[in-house]
Amino acid sequence: MTIKKVCCLGAGYVGGPTCSIMAYKCPDIQVIVVDKSKQRIDEWNSDVLPIYEPGLDEVVKQCRGKNLHFSTEIETAIKEADLIFISVNTPTKTFGYGKGKAADLKYVELAARDIVETVESGFKIVVEKSTVPVKAAESISTILHSKQKAGVEFQVLSNPEFLAEGSAITDLLHAERVLIGGEQSPKGKLAIGALSWIYQHWIPEEKILTMDTWSSELSKLAANAFLAQRISSINALTPLCEETGADVSEVAKAIGKDSRIGSKFLQASVGFGGSCFQKDILNLVYICESLGLQEVAAYWNSVIVINDYQKRRFSLRIVHRLFNTVTDKRISILGFAFKKNTGDTRESAAIHLSKHLMDENAKLAIYDPKVDKQQILDDLSHPYISEDPSRVARLVTIHQSAYEAGQGSHALVICTEWDEFVKLDFRRMYEIMEKPAFVFDGRKILDHEALISIGFEVETIGKRFNQ
Ligand code: NAD
Q1: Which domain holds residue 415?
Q2: How many Å lie between the centroid of ligand 1 and the Cα of residue 109?
Q3: Does the C-beta of 11 come closer than 6 Å to ligand 1?
């Protein structure tokens, strides 16, 4: 089966970059990315794309208007496509049964209903790109087959996405593996073959893994759980290091040399953020609990417990070092994105640190090179963060540079590992700050000895300088 037209429901952090690379690598395929949000589509069609990813602009500019299109005309795109990706959001439920843990599958279900309402003829491959609980494909398939339209046939595949924000383009171009899960029936195999053919335009065949649908769905949750677990494991050693005089960087170096452990993802920090790790682990915990697997649920939940503890512990340390009061003290938050090279702030450590410091009446001067002012204000005004949004207007200012934020501050708090923070002129910064001037390096990116020699008081994760 040859695929000529692909459509993707959802022009977000996954749908946008994934389809851009698909169009770039498959000139023989027309790729249409659709979204319910007109604003998002307008941005994809403009010079300022809705998301920041290194290398994305160039790819989009090269393909847009040729074989890559962004549109709000969802029905037309669905009708014309041979293969339809569902790449919509699957946030954690904020209400009702499973609140705070289960994935909210409302958007996935609506997408499946849009497809079944719209399709009038032909064999359509529907690909679950969103991260979903195990067996979600079964629900999608049931909805797709609920109308029993003559001449219409669907096959559902699972094809989870493993890109990491900040390196999405490289990850997509050089994927370590592509996972395709599907039925082992003749039609299932046909669909798997068709999707596999698309990826083979740029991914070596041996890196395309095919398996049953449920293993594929679970593999995505498991991959994120393992990655987050490593971060929580190294972070769980940091209070021990701080109490005993050990240095977590030395410990990480030592254990990382063991090839059974490996050195990647052993960077201690103020904690992980992002839209996926927490959401997907909570989802896994919820699935375990629903199956009566309480011990397994508790095991995975501990990854989240340590992550929350790490963020709380760091903010307490800031307050403690600033003489147990930060009321009306200006504190610079450097970095608001959840990691470098992205403008995404979802679940960022900066949001949680800011919340704790606002609760202590600190005045926050925030700077991030890629996050715009309104995004920061919206994040901090969210009911989960501020019970009284007027406090945000009173306590928070947003700045155009690290120096502007640092001016008159008692402390700099590094929340995101942006390269530009490493290159700051800290002598200049020291001059414009209140004294004693503190640096709280939540990402362990700065030269701490150099900062101490300038005169800064330095605090970081997993190491104490003032024992
Ligand atoms: P996102 O919120 O950035 O984008 C989702 C988009 O889907 C939104 O623009 C929304 O308007 C649109 N949408 C919702 N329902 C729609 C419908 N019926 N038709 C058309 N558009 C619709 O989300 P994202 O970060 O791109 O994540 C999408 C999925 O991929 C999630 O399940 C997520 O867990 C998973 N994922 C995300 C990442 C990541 O790094 N962000 C990585 C791997 C997997």
Answers
A1: 277-460
A2: 13
A3: yes
